[in-house]
Amino acid sequence: MATAARWLLPQSQHKPLMLTLLLLVFVSQSLRCYSAGYSEQERDRVAFLPGQPRSPQVSRFSGHVTVNEKNGRALFYWFFEAQEQPAQKPLLLWLNGGPGCSSVGYGAASELGPLRVSRFAAGLEFNKFAWNKEANLLFLESPVGVGFSYTNTSSDLTSLSDDFVAQDAYNFLVNWFKRFPQYKDREFYISGESYAGHYVPQLADLVYERNKDRKANTYINFKGFFFFFFFELNFKGFIVGNPITDDYYDSKGLAEYAWSHAVVSDELYDQIKKVCDFRASNWTDDCDKAMSTIFRQYHEIDIYNIYAPKCNLAQTSVSSSADEALKYSDHEPFRRRIRMFSGYDECYSSYAQKYFNKADVQIALHANLNGMHPGKWQVCSDSILRSYNFSVVSVLPIYAKLIKAGLRVWLYSGDADGRVPVIGSRYCVEALALPIKTQWQPWYLNQQVAGRFVEYHGMTMVTIRGAGHLVPLNKPAEGLTLIDTFLLGKQLPTHR
Ligand SMILES: *[C@@H]1O[C@H](CO)[C@@H](O)[C@H](O)[C@H]1NC(C)=O
Ligand SMILES: *[C@@H]1O[C@H](CO)[C@@H](O)[C@H](O)[C@H]1NC(C)=O
Ligand SMILES: *[C@@H]1O[C@H](CO)[C@@H](O)[C@H](O)[C@H]1NC(C)=O
After folding, report:
1. Residues of the signal sequence (predicted)?
2. pLDDT tens across 286-300, in order?
């Protein structure tokens, strides 16, 4: 009635009327956007996956999200709602590294997802230590060229760099939140391991910057008439595991770890100390040779988990991504050789590779609808690793900045990893020179020392005793305690 009455008002009072009309259009547009989001969301719901267990119920979605319309780039995600009370739980994004490895194949299907591929790819098994116990869990295959993520412009595949990856991942978030608007105001955290040690802080930085700048951003992201999509995330922090962080400290740590864990001789270690300057952007031939000797010593054991038995499946059936990386990199400058895949366990990844190449699985996941995905699904892509532009040598300046901004920042390290060893990560954290809040001390799970941790003002570093590079795979219970504690912003258990 109020609206009708306004029509009768004299000319001079039309202003509030116009505003009301604008508001109405605004609201209806917003509602349309919301309902469009929800119906797209329903289209992504995964009803049933071949070989999945009947119980418990796991609510999940998957599909592609366009990140660049001009070049036709789309990233693939797999999303699991929290097992209980998803509306009350935070949202956690998980990224694997490589560069070139799939967060679906590793993170979701082999490490911390609720449905992991079972032995011989017969089906899926429920993982009782899944991280979606405490969070809504989003796995992203990034960048384009990884897994089911693709581009219609092939030159994109040879232009990949940290910056490129972060921009696309950010655009993914903007568009994913349009599809899942109920998560937009949720507490949001970013996590990942290995080379995602680069991706995670850089994406965090981008989210932080764009949040500050949200007006301009809304304008950029919305092509219609009204600014109804205020894209400001409730971003709280990040956590990274066995992360590649700083080339100097990580390389120094790799050499020291190999020596201190009796992998290489005193002579070789002395030689490395003499001929290697890890601060140099190019290593000398002598350094290159000495470091190759370290990798050769690791070749017969599992560099990613030095006390574990080596999986020998690869020799006969599938080729091991990590071994492949070593093989071809023998012909390339060592600067490349240091960039090995984050994923490694041929036994696990070969099952994932088999499972995600099944036609019925791809259809159920909305992964390959029009036969659009060119090659076979690979758990890690050699060509991306090879062509990737490694121009960022350290992400420590980003840590310093985001810690100062008050974000929650944790770094954890499986202490049996020879590839991105705990020693190098300690150097990295120490280089930040943060004041100590609580001293280095053990933390406990099931009456045992699960690892150690140290709290600084602004960041926490945690070790997981006896875990390798893939902590959630090697030490699932410890991994779950770790992520719960991080998400709740608490302290790890300091008593038995
Ligand atoms: C890529 O090209 C295919 C075939 O033309 C098209 O169906 C698809 O929508 C394009 N992808 C993107 C993200 O634009
Ligand atoms: C480093 O190595 C690359 C490739 O081998 C070469 O092109 C470049 O000039 C070298 N840079 C320096 C500073 O020596
Ligand atoms: C790699 O990235 C850096 C920084 O963005 C850029 O200056 C350089 O030209 C790139 N190199 C190649 C080979 O594309």
Report:
1. 1-33
2. 998 999 999 899 988
| Residues 436 and 457 placed together within one structural domain of the fold | yes
pLDDT in tens, 233-253: 999 999 999 999 999 999 999
DSSP state for residue 380 in the 8-state scheme? B
Measure the CA–CA gap between 408 and 426, rounded to whole angstroms. 18
Residue 191 phi/psi, 5° resolution?
-140, 165
Residues 181 and 146 in one domain: yes
Ligand 1 nearest atom to the CA of residue 74, by list position: 13
According to DSSP H, which parts of 312-448 are helical? 321-329, 334-337, 346-355, 359-364, 382-387, 396-404, 422-431
Q: Could you tell me the two tokens for 217?
A: 């951003």
Which amino acid residue places its CA nearest to atom 14 of ligand 2? 282
Top mutation candidate among 152, 172, 369 for ligand 1, by most atoms within 8 Å of CB: 152
- Is position 86 within any domain? yes
**Is residue 417 annotated as part of the catalytic site, yes or no?**
yes
Instruction: Kindly state whether residues 30 and 153 are assigned to the same domain.
Output: no
Q: Is residue 254 part of a domain?
A: no
Which residues, at least 6 apart from 474, have a Cβ–Cβ distance to it below 8 Å?
A: 305, 308, 414, 416, 464, 466, 467, 468
Q: 142, 194, 251, 321: which one is catalytic?
A: 194
Number of domains making up the chain: 3
Domain extent at residue 12: 2-41
Rounded to whole angstroms, the Cα distance separating 346 from 361 reads 21
Q: How far is the CA of 300 from the centre of ligand 1 (A)?
A: 44
Q: Are residues 8 and 151 in the same domain?
A: no
| 37, 154: one domain | no
- What's the gap in Å between 452 CA and the centre of ligand 2? 40
Q: Which atom of ligand 2 is nearest to the CA of 280?
A: 13
CB 178 within 8 A of CB 199: no
- Annotated catalytic, 14? no
Considering just the CA atoms, what is the radius of gyration of the chain in Å?
24
Domain shared by 29 and 124, yes or no:
no
Q: Indicate which residue's Cα is closest to atom 12 of ligand 1.
A: 72
